[in-house]
Design goal:
Layout lengths: L2 H12 L8 E4 L7 H18 L4 E5 L17 H12 L10 E6 L5 E7 L9 E2 L2 E6 L2 E4 L2 H8 L22 H13 L5 H6 L2 H7 L10 H7 L14 E7 L5 E8 L2 H11 L4 E4 L10 E4 L3 H14 L8 E5 L3 E7 L7 H6 L10 H9 L6 H15 L5 E3 L4 E7 L5 H9 L5 H11 L6 H9 L3 E4 L2 E4 L1 H6 L3 H8 L3 H15 L1 E3 H9 L8 H17 L3 E4 L6 E4 L1
Parallel strand pairs: 1-2, 8-12
Antiparallel strand pairs: 2-4, 3-4, 5-6, 6-7, 8-9, 10-11, 12-13, 13-15, 14-15, 16-17, 18-20, 19-20
Length: 555
């Protein structure tokens, strides 16, 4: 680009009322960190893709708030800038790097460095050092799973599950699986049973949205294909592995089921030891124990069928069901399309987008699954009604893992659920995360604080006093709260009377665990310093020298 062209571009950027997702200004008068530069490259590239922009701009030598051109001496040579282009390429997805790094002498004589950043390619989000970055307004942050999936889905012009297998035919489908599909389809439409019975297999499969105009789809093989037909969807895999683990995580038994999945579901279900569980439900106010299945059958089938519906078959790999003495763990490959479980729990509408739209539609039509939102909410409600722990979702590492616990782990906590019917599923899920020490957003914290369910300050949030008292966590609560200032003063003065003198290190050690858990180390240090200053000012204590080895005495 010519100097005039670059000047015109910069003028337009400077005239923006503020930074955007695809424009970032930095002073960088003397330098800028390589890692932060790489993060901004990833973020701006991804956002340019999502916004449909031909490029994004990162500009050095500009004061962010005023847009004043202050100039930058960042890598003040052409070889140094070219070396940076290569360095970024070496650490990004597909060696994606700057279109160009431009140097411009602006009208006021100041040097400006303009990084021209290409949008992420269609279907490929850009990571820097293995991490995806994005923007929220002017803020740099991790790229959300929703945005990652939006970019990835750009190349999925056709739903994988709807793709037609050219050399496949009805002969590749299992007759028993077709009979089962007819049964499920008819049960959901009993008023049309006679009409459905009159359809031949080709008509039925088309009507059930398993085939397309009589042609075999990936969905047809997954749900109804003969075991030996699995190779037709290669390199995708159609397998479900059930593993029984005993004490010390030792594998005691296993089974691998292949397609047709419509029959494999029953095989896996029959393997799961859904034993009777006896317990006294505190909600029912009785001395006599109830006897129920360890797992609600709906929860097992919904979790398993969800894994089938939402598995990313393009990644290969199998669906896993791991059974322990008191829990089931279901896992499938692929990100969680809604982004987070909280979104599912508060939404009253089904998702607008599914990974395997054709497969999911077919499974909904056969009543194998509910829509992703309603099905998960039902699973939560079944567990809540039993006063069992809620389903625990782990969405890390591009996979979905859900743990279903088959017993009451904390009777006191169960009583809280029983006594607080006004708490909705999201409240319970968030409160459970507080109990487990997991992070919450500012919005989630505000929600719980507004209902008087938590205390403390981010990131040290803990359950409120009235809940702690009910669940037998009074000592933990008091530990979180710590001692009041007056109590700390009296404790310190008593210790100084006893020992005649204490060093600053000893005083820190003495008071550290007495201070609230919501304070970080620096805040605790400052708290103790302020306490010593106050007592010294009031003439109650004095010190010799300063620092960690200084001695403190009673005045």
């Amino acid at each position: 680009m010519t100097s005039n062209t670059l000047t015109d571009i910069l003028d337009k950027l400077l005239n923006l009322p503020s930074e955007t997702e695809v424009v970032e200004f930095k002073k960088a008068v003397n330098g800028f960190g390589d890692q932060e530069l790489g993060q901004y490259f990833s973020a701006l590239s991804n956002e340019a893709n999502l916004k449909g922009k031909p490029c994004a701009w990162l500009v050095f030598g500009i004061e962010n708030n005023t847009h004043e051109v202050v100039g930058s001496q960042y890598k003040n040579s052409r070889p140094a800038l070219d070396a940076m282009k290569k360095k970024i390429a070496d650490q990004t997805t597909g060696r994606h790097t700057f279109v160009e790094i431009h140097e411009l002498q602006y009208r006021n004589g100041k040097r400006v460095v303009m990084f021209e950043i290409p949008p992420a390619p269609q279907g490929i989000p850009i990571a820097y050092q293995g991490h995806y970055y994005g923007r929220d307004g002017e803020s740099l942050q991790a790229l959300s799973m929703d945005k990652i999936e939006r970019i990835r889905n750009q190349v999925r012009l056709k739903d994988w599950s709807a793709e037609i297998i050219g050399d496949a035919s009805l002969e590749d489908l299992d007759p028993a699986a077709i009979v089962k599909a007819r049964e499920l389809y008819t049960n959901a439409r009993k008023d049309k049973a006679d009409e459905i019975a009159s359809w031949d297999d080709t008509t039925f499969l088309n009507k059930a949205k398993i085939t397309i105009r009589g042609k075999i789809t990936n969905t047809a093989i997954i749900l109804l294909g003969k075991e030996e037909s699995e190779h037709l969807i290669s390199p995708a895999v159609a397998k479900i592995k059930w593993i029984l683990r005993g004490q010390n995580n030792i594998e005691r038994d296993y089974m691998i089921a292949s397609c047709p999945f419509i029959l494999a579901v029953d095989k896996i279900y029959d393997k799961i030891r859904n034993l009777k569980y006896r317990y006294i439900n505190p909600e029912h106010k009785t001395l006599f124990p109830e006897e129920i299945d360890t797992y609600e059958p709906y929860v097992i089938r919904e979790a398993l069928n969800n894994a089938i519906a939402h598995q990313d078959y393009t990644l290969g790999g199998q669906i896993n069901v791991v059974e322990y003495d008191d829990k089931l763990v279901f896992s499938n490959k692929g990100s969680f399309i809604p982004g987070n479980i909280e979104r599912v729990l508060i939404s009253n509408a089904p998702e607008e987008q599914y990974r395997n739209q054709f497969l999911t539609t077919a499974m909904v039509g056969l009543k194998m699954v509910d829509t992703i939102g309603s099905g998960i909410r039902k699973m939560y409600n079944f567990q809540r009604q039993r006063l069992f722990p809620l389903p625990d979702y782990n969405l890390d590492n591009n996979r979905v893992e859900v743990t279903i616990t088959g017993k009451i782990l904390d009777l006191n906590y169960a009583n809280i659920l029983a006594e607080n019917a006004d708490l909705n599923l999201l409240d319970i899920e968030l409160l459970n995360r507080v109990q487990l020490g997991k992070s919450l957003s500012d919005k989630e914290i505000a929600r719980l604080r507004g209902k008087h369910l938590i205390e403390g300050r981010k990131p040290r949030i803990y359950i409120a006093k009235h809940i702690a008292q009910k669940v037998g966590q009074r000592i933990e609560y008091s530990g979180h709260k710590g001692l009041m200032n007056k109590s700390c003063e009296e404790f310190l003065l008593t210790a100084l009377h006893d020992h005649k003198s204490l060093s600053r290190n000893e005083i820190d050690e003495l008071l550290w665990k007495l201070l609230p858990d919501l304070l970080d180390d620096k805040q605790k240090k400052d708290k103790i310093t302020n306490l010593l200053t106050k007592l010294k000012k009031h003439g109650k204590i004095k010190n010799k020298s300063r620092g960690p080895h200084s001695d403190w005495f009673i005045s």
